[in-house]
Amino acid sequence: MVAPSETQPAPPAPPGRHRRFPGWAKAAAVLAALALLFTLVTRADIVPGLDDLFGEETHDRSGPALLESIQDMSRYEGASGNFQVVVDLEKDTKYLPDSIRGTRTLYVGTGSVSSYVDLGELDERSVVVNEDRTAATLRLPHARLGKPALDADRSYAVSKQRGLLNRLGDLFSDNPNDERAVNRLAVRHIAEAAEESELAERAEKNTSAMLRGLLTSLGFEKVTIRYGGER
Q1: Non-local CB neighbours of 64 within 8 Å, separated by 6+ positions
Q2: Which residue of 27, 69, 121, 189 has the fewest CB atoms within a 10 Å radius of its CB?
Q3: pTM
Q4: What is the DSSP secondary structure assignment for residue 155, as one 8-state letter?
Q5: Buried residues in 84-113 as b, exposed as e (16+ CB within 10 A)
Q6: How many angstroms separate the Cα of 35 from the Cα of each of 28, 40, 83?
């Protein structure tokens, strides 16, 4: 018989009872499971048949396009140029390294610019015909450049570098990785390149050739075409 003051040994653990895992081990297991699930969803192609379960589907539920306005054109487009520019846009923050806050985007912009002569500006003083209707003189305005049209299918971002704070901000943004800034820069550089090119001169040359061919077919033997203030 054991005395009441003596301490009795703890009873053995019942069979089948497992040892508890610490909290950090459970958290690590949950994170590992989520990482595995994320990998399977985003890379469904690594497991045969899984793409049918987690594959991405695209549905176009856009409404019909509405015609807002119609504009009559009196322009003759005499030439068009294709341009490509590499935009290197970097945004820094004072006193913070780029790895914390800052972005740098390398973007290839491809677009076209047309050059035209506005024939709608002609009046009775712009066309002079002799009495025999064998000679005609036309005074036309100089060719102008249209607005650059960026080709979305041929323009793309080569690389994007973002700081930690920028990445966190993209998580709560409705439009992450906004490319409007590089698009605007690409359009501006393409417009500047078009201004420095011979696009307008080529448009005037082609317009003159078109009008000479047209008036010659109508019976005119001599056709003189001048642009701007030429006499």
Answers
A1: none
A2: 69
A3: 0.65
A4: -
A5: ebebeeeeeeeeeebeebbbebebebbbeb
A6: 10, 9, 44
